[in-house]
Amino acid sequence: MDLERLMEQCDSAVSNAEAFAEQLSRDLSVLDGANIHSMMASEAQVEALMVMIDSAYTEAEKIETRLDSYDEILLHVKDSIEKMADKNTSIEQTNANNSKLLEELDRLINQLDLPRNYVKDLYEPDLNKAGMLPQAIQAAAALQLVINAPISSQLSQLQAVQDEKKRFDKLRGRFSQIVSRHLNNLFIHLGNDPGETLSLHAEQLTLPRHGSIHTELLPYTPLMHWIRALDHRAYQHLNKTYATSISKLYERDIRLFFEEARQRISGGRRLRGSGSSQDIASMSGVAGKLTSQIKHGAQTLGTRTNTGALLGVDRDQWGSELDMQERQKFDEIFERVLSELQPVCLSEQEFCIAFFNLNATGNEKAPSSVASTPGSSGSEESSGSAGTSSGAGLIGTPGSGHGRPFNREVRSMMAALFTTLEQQLASFINTYDRADSYCCLYIYVRLSEHVLTAEDTGSFLCTTFGSCLVQAKRNFDRFMNSQLQSIQECRVARKKCGIIPFIINFEEFAKTAESVFKKSERRADLDKWYVRLVLAMFEYIPRVASEHQRTPPEVIKMENYHVLHQLMFQLKLPGMDTQKKEAKQRYQEALSAYVTQYFGRPLEKLNQFFDGVTNKVASGVKESEVGYQLAFSKQELRKVIKEYPGKEVKRGLDQLYKKVEKHLSEEGNLLQACPIMVVWRAMQEEFIRQYKLIEDLIHRCYPGAMINLEFSIDDILNYFSDIALSH
Asked: What is the pTM of this model?
């Protein structure tokens, strides 16, 4: 703004720059002088200002000194406050530790606190006194709690804790000794008490149950669990004492039970194959001496079939076996035996598991198949393709693997209690298996039913049944193999062959097998053997026919195929449709061959005459011109026809019937269908066929000659009917 004002004032001097510069110079000099005068005039004020500044500096130093003292004081206060904070934290931590220590001590005291009344009950328990048992159980539970109290390793090192532990251990030993002695005596007493025994006059065969023993021992279950947890040695001793004492009862009961079963089946009479010095009454008495009844039964089975009911052996050569009524009785009693064993063993097993706490430790996986049980060794002989593996698939899909697993302790305990069960069962099975070869069918089916329907596949009884089932399957296959072998080795020594033994015996065999396997899960095993046996019959009927010297082979094949077909049709064996059709076809082929060979051509001369006629026609002679041939003239034809009057034809047929009757056997009757009538009907049809052929040739080659045979088809039918009725 000053510059603008200056320029406005000097506007005229713009054109005169020099004058303007001079003007400016003068103004500057004036201003400098004014400034110097002004500065000199304010010197006193400046001095006063400097004095004031010095005074202020002095005051500032004083203030700074005071502030430094204050700062030192504050630093001391800070240290004091920090020390006080640390002290407060330490006090709080100490209080917290004291509280926790008090809590830990309270917990430790509570954990190790055993009321005095419990100590008294543990030290001097009177278990025979009424009402004392619940108190002892409570005291034992309290002692177990303090003994098993979760105390840290640091606290366990305290002398007081160690002293309490020693005191508790003495109480445990004292109480365990008293309880073990009491239970030991109780086990021995119960083992010597006869209790419930087998009733020999009861309507039903019944194995005594010992529920009263279980009822008496169940109140002691908590104490037994206590001993198992705290005194393993005493527990093992009690376990062994119980098994030893109670096994005597079961050994006696099972022995009498099987003796009574034998008595009810056979009335005590001696059975075939029972041994030279053993009979029904004494067989079970030596069961304890048997090392392996199952293997023994397998060895004797192979020899017992020499006199047993074999298909390929005549019935008069069969050994003395059980009749059908005794077989049914055996089936009923054997089913009763298995049914009675099941509740007794399962009841005892459940009691032992509960009382001895046998499943308290880790469970082992139960066996999934009885193929691994005793008796399934590979040394046994193969039983053929129908049986395949003797033990494989015996516990198949139904019920397989269900039920809870049982550990080794359970099975060991049950084996110690029922020491003779498997031996007695095997002895019973083998006695009747040797006495009657058909018993193996009943045994196999019944054992299969019980094993397949078992709820606890890993139980001792199921394992025992499984062991016997493996051998029963082998015996079944061996029995079937012996039947098959008897078919293959069959020889007919009779003068007239007739129906081969394995065809005659097949009816009883199949009916018996059907009655046993009717609704069994093992039906498939029987059906496989049916096919093998029938195929063997198909194979060996022709062999027997060719080997027999007196009976025509066609007759043997015709009769036996006929009876076999009728048997399969009557029995309605499932899955045998193919074999049934084959039997019918083989029968028809044999019948046709027999008729062709032995019926021949009764009108032989007529047949020869027309054979010549047929040859002439075949050589080119017209049928209407055959009569003009000298050898085949009408006169020659009438001459031949006269040789076959009705009486002669009937006489020839009668002789043929007698010949057929001699060929055929009297054993071929079945279902009101007599094979001789079937043969006679086939011969009648063949005769009528030949008759119609001759009549047709007469009408074609001798038309209008009015030539006919001296008998008609009706006459033929009457001849055959009269001859059949007369015989």
From this structure: 0.69
